[in-house]
């Protein structure tokens, strides 16, 4: 969000700015204008900069399929599957790609904002690092460490981050930004002064916590941390509409339900227990990076039976991408899980077969959305739904991500599934809400960061700060 806010802030100043994340690890992705896929965060940052998403903004993407393996996406397209232990063998090749893409962006734009990944203090991964100090040292970049004070222990984290780095990495750390601060900044000020005395590095600003920032979350971390999506607003009528979104273990593109949470009176909750379906007016099965494995998890938890019972009662079920595939009669998967043919939940009379080549498709004419999936419909006796999916009664399925961002589609679906007494609002514009969030972040940064000093870093490069301790 800091990078997105800076992109929007600089774009508003007339600076031609681009985002860059050398390597992302996320199952939330978006399709680009050049026909590839990148992390959704970089697509959001591109939007903040007034740009269409492009693969060069995130040349390496890792999409976890299990705790130890990830699908490797290079320049927008699948390049194989890698294990954590053998990633080192790919490092030299990927570094060449990363540095080439960054160099081209720096030639084309006035400024490029490079987001790190995880923490630069993960010294056990330094030898294979592409996105943090590995990139900074190779491209001679000034580095600002952003710390989330809402997690606690921030001053120790900032000091320790610098302290454990190699001397040549330490010298690139120019300063700090404190994020998500609650309370009186005057109480924090003495600590920041001591931090500067200890490290020789200033803090460029303290960004206050903002409750209203929740759209376009980077990955499933927010899904794990918060049960309720967004900031539910009171209904326009006399009734709430309750939606249970199932938090799959390998959930992907969890942001699809955020559009629903923008609606007044719509309460979207992440659930993992069949009992949580009881009071829901509708159930959403989101996307998954491990469709067959997550389908097994649904059955083990009793959620598959719960979804079927929900549909049998005439209540709405919506499956998106992997969730859509689970609702079909069968899934033949020799690609992702290599399980072969398995039985689906069977609420939609259709069959799915996984192809080795991933479908990557961006839709912008009429309805907007995008597709990222290996599974394809090979047989269907279900009804067509809007030309973007299938329907059987109150059960809906689509491969389209972002479909609910289309205001007319979302309102029509909510009207069909809503309980008596619920009034569907006619004035919610999700696209405008997303832009408003980016403007809010830019305004926060403008009001609480020393922007002139940060701009000077863009012009002057690394400040070559001294080392503070010997690296461990």
UniProtKB/TrEMBL annotation:
The keyword Ribonucleoprotein does not apply. Pathway: Cofactor biosynthesis; adenosylcobalamin biosynthesis. Pfam families: CbiA, GATase_3. Residues 242-408 form the CobB/CobQ-like glutamine amidotransferase domain. Residues 2-213 form the CobQ/CobB/MinD/ParA nucleotide binding domain. Coiled coil: none annotated. Keywords: Cobalamin biosynthesis, Glutamine amidotransferase. The active site is at residues 321, 401. GO terms for biological process: cobalamin biosynthetic process. It comes from the Bacteria. One of its GO terms (molecular function) is catalytic activity. CDD domains: GATase1_CobQ. Catalyzes amidations at positions B, D, E, and G on adenosylcobyrinic A,C-diamide. NH(2) groups are provided by glutamine, and one molecule of ATP is hydrogenolyzed for each amidation. Belongs to the CobB/CobQ family. CobQ subfamily. HAMAP family: CobQ. This is Cobyric acid synthase. It comes from Mycolicibacterium flavescens. The gene is cobQ.
